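Input structure tokens:
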């Protein structure tokens, strides 16, 4: 199998490269169908034709493709090894076919200026730079690190700082999957939130740089636009039933009444990445007990037990680089017993 995948790597890379050039973004995975045989002494051989597939991979940069393909092939080889290990005696007989499954990937991205709805605008927590190009991500970042004293939504003030950011190999409009690259090139950490009646995280940074910027990716139809969130706590104020100043976690958006409580919470919460809370609708907002029949006493109970002998089985050696369970015995039933317990005398 390893030689087969190695021989197919170059044609797969060529095909993926052509599709990526046309579609600008791909989601893809590899699927291999193989035939296995298990010889039986004095009987007819057993055959099996399982499929092995890689994880679904997102590709937007041709330079990442070779590494991603190597990981995909490794996943298939690991799955094959597990199959042979768990099904003792299976021998690879023939590789029937390999499928490369692809779909166009269009990541979220911001573009030109969109006026914000009144609900967001009146909070005075967002700076919506009025750009006419597709560089709203850049202008919003600049608004965060070079705050204007007045007319913060006007573009001309930030133009003097635009050469201070490194956007090498990052195309405009900036997509969500490119934000990590921007962070590393500029030592600026970025969070991106969305808004659909409530605020929710879209991208949460894994970096811990001194300069940090929160952005809002607002959508109107098929158009999306980045804005600067200058005060996350103020933006989230109407979600606070206490109507007092709260400090909100940038990962789960849970509010705390004191900043020190937030600082204590975030190191633990950041391990889980971005989170979004979904509440039940009105039709499914209450839980109540309804299994009353399970409170009734049953007329009788049967207790049963099997006895087994352990037989040694053959298996392949586990992969030392990964955690795995090694099967070495098989339990073969050799006897059983049961007893009926009831309050009735004749059962």
């Amino acid at each position: 199998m390893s030689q087969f995948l190695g021989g197919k790597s170059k044609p797969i890379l060529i095909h993926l490269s052509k599709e990526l050039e046309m579609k600008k973004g791909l989601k893809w995975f590899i699927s291999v169908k193989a035939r296995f045989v298990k010889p039986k002494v004095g009987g007819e051989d057993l055959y099996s034709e399982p499929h092995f597939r890689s994880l679904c991979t997102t590709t937007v940069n041709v330079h990442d493709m070779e590494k991603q393909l190597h990981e995909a092939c490794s996943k298939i080889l690991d799955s094959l090894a597990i199959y042979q290990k768990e099904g003792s005696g299976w021998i690879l007989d023939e590789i029937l076919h390999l499928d490369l499954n692809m779909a166009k990937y269009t990541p979220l991205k911001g573009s030109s200026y969109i006026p914000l709805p009144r609900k967001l605008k009146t909070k005075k927590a967002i700076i919506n730079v009025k750009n006419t190009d597709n560089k709203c991500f850049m202008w919003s970042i600049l608004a965060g690190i070079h705050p204007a004293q007045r007319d913060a939504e006007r573009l001309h003030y930030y133009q003097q700082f635009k050469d201070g950011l490194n956007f090498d190999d990052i195309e405009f409009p900036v997509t969500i999957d490119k934000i990590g690259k921007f962070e590393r090139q500029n030592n600026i950490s970025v969070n991106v939130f969305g808004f659909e009646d409530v605020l929710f995280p879209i991208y949460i940074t894994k970096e811990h740089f001194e300069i940090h910027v929160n952005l809002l990716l607002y959508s109107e139809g098929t158009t999306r636009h980045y804005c600067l969130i200058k005060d996350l706590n103020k933006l989230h104020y109407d979600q606070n039933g206490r109507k007092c100043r709260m400090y909100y976690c940038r990962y789960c958006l849970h509010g705390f009444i004191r900043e020190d409580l937030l600082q204590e919470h975030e190191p633990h919460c950041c391990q889980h990445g971005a989170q979004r809370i979904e509440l039940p609708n009105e039709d499914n907002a209450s839980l109540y007990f309804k299994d009353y029949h399970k409170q009734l006493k049953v007329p009788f109970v049967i207790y049963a037990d099997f006895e087994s002998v352990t037989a040694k089985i053959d298996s392949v050696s586990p992969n030392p680089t990964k955690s795995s369970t090694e099967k070495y015995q098989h339990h073969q039933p050799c006897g059983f017993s049961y007893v009926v317990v009831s309050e009735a005398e004749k059962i």
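The longest helix spans residues 2-23. The chain has three domains: 8-104, 118-270, 293-342.
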